[in-house]
Design goal:
glycoprotein, transmembrane, globular, 0% strand, transmembrane helix, Major facilitator superfamily domain-containing protein
């Protein structure tokens, strides 16, 4: 037998059999990467007027584009990085891409023109997209299905907490130093995480681990026939590269599961950036707060995300385990769906409270409570949807999450561009009422389709796990 595989079900090299400590090191480091790059995406929000003035930015649209173009690159990057990780492993691709982010994010701080800023922001976004492209794959590699809830909750929290925390630091850096330090402080933090990852982050992708094992055994035994089940000697390097690079595009356009969860998360993610873009308009113009003080209101989103994490994270695994017993089934991805239904009430309710209290200029705590409720519902939605995709596409989890992330980040890129126009045209009350109404429909229809027909849809897919 020339096939190289694991040394039994308890092989310690199999990431599923790693100690919980080692699994958590991988999860936390990837979550730190996933936290830092979104911080960079929104940390600019309080500094946009100063940046526009210093860089002679010609229009308001171009000013918001300096913030949003990062997310445009975020949408494109996973289509290259995710399949590369399924060829060369998660760690090498993650660390190489992060170096691209680190270099160009630092260079952003030296920009002298709007064009330079746009180009450097786009390039830093390409590198910064790696954690969102590969993180789902790392979780799938390390954690068994019944263990993924809490890990996914922490990982899912990172891209939300980053945009909520970023403007707070950005507001004070802008007020007491200057906007260029926003980029340099982020780069300093990212450099620390990069060093820790080089020291402690181990490869998690099973085909890569087994490939290294087979290569070592071939050298030791002089048996050139040794191979893994994932090896494709019938294909050249260019054929493998082409196959892997086109997979996320094919999955995006052929997999209803990815399309549905992608559109579901795209609207909700866009809403988050809508709210983020509305904060300067609300707190600085309507409540007349200075940038530093106004940025503190972003704490409400962070509080909502953290509460949502601690409430829903363990609950996802408990519901999954109880449904396995109830249906006498070893477990299927659809067991992640039931917790998505409450968000059809929680998320729109928070959005409405935020909009109505802002419209009537109630005490500042009321819009913040609404924003926190909105954030709590949002994180629950994303945890369930993220875990559903990871469970459905285990081997191709990176390509699947990368493809789904394309729709999400395109919404994050585009929504802030028209947020000020919508609120000025409709006001906070009517504007948020429209957005909340759409959210109710999206949060009910999407989960219902997945719960009712998800298993049948997956059965027809060549990419879904058995």
């Amino acid at each position: 037998m020339n096939q190289v595989t694991w040394d039994g079900p308890d092989d310690p090299e199999n990431p599923h059999n790693w100690s919980r400590g080692k699994k958590w090191v991988s999860t936390i480091l990837v979550s730190c990467f996933t936290f830092i790059s979104p911080v960079s995406s929104t940390m600019l929000a309080p500094a946009l007027p100063d940046m526009a003035n210093d860089l002679n930015t010609p229009s308001g649209f171009m000013t918001y584009l300096m913030m949003s173009i990062f997310l445009l690159a975020y949408a494109i990057g996973p289509f290259v990085l995710a399949p590369l990780s399924e060829m060369y492993g998660r760690v090498v691709v993650l660390q190489a891409a992060n170096m691209i982010f680190l270099i160009f994010n630092t260079v952003c701080g030296f920009s002298r023109t709007t064009t330079q800023m746009l180009v450097f922001r786009f390039l830093s976004g390409l590198g910064g997209s790696a954690p969102q492209a590969l993180g789902g794959g790392v979780l799938s590699d390390c954690w068994k299905k019944e263990e993924r809830g809490v890990a996914t909750a922490i990982y899912s929290l990172a891209p939300f907490l980053g945009p909520a925390v970023g403007p707070i630091a950005g507001g004070y850096l802008t007020q007491y130093m200057n906007w260029r330090w926003i980029f340099w402080v982020v780069s300093m933090a990212d450099a620390v995480v990069q060093i820790l990852a080089v020291l402690f982050l181990s490869e998690t992708y099973a085909p890569k681990i087994l490939h290294v094992k087979a290569k070592s055994l071939r050298k030791i035994t002089n048996n050139s026939s040794l191979h893994t089940e994932y090896d494709r000697p019938d294909r050249t390097f260019l054929q493998l590269l082409g196959k892997n690079l086109t997979r996320p595009f094919i999955m995006l356009f052929t997999q209803p599961t990815i399309q549905l969860t992608g559109l579901y998360r795209a609207y909700l993610y866009g809403l988050m950036y809508f709210v983020l873009a509305s904060f300067p308009l609300l707190w600085e113009e309507q409540y007349n707060q200075e940038p530093g003080r106004a940025s503190l209101n972003y704490i409400s989103l962070g509080v909502g995300f953290v509460i949502g994490l601690f409430v829903s994270g363990p609950m996802i695994d408990k519901v999954y385990a109880s449904l396995k017993i109830r249906y006498n089934h070893p477990g299927r991805p659809e067991f992640r769906i039931p917790l998505m239904f409450p968000t059809a009430l929680v998320t729109p309710a928070g959005l409405l409270l935020y909009g109505l209290s802002a419209h009537f200029r109630l005490h500042w705590i009321v819009p913040n409570v609404g924003a926190a409720i909105f954030a709590g519902g949002l994180i629950l939605s994303f945890q369930c949807a993220q875990t559903y995709v990871v469970d459905s596409y285990e081997r191709y989890a990176a390509s699947a999450t990368g493809a789904a992330a394309f729709l999400r980040t395109m919404a994050g890129f585009s929504f802030p561009l028209f947020a000020p126009s919508l609120y000025r045209a409709l006001g906070f009350a009517y504007g948020n009422a429209v957005l909340a109404g759409i959210a109710v429909v999206v949060c009910l229809v999407g989960p219902f389709i997945l719960w009712r027909w998800g298993e049948a849809i997956r059965a027809r897919s060549q990419y879904c796990a058995n």
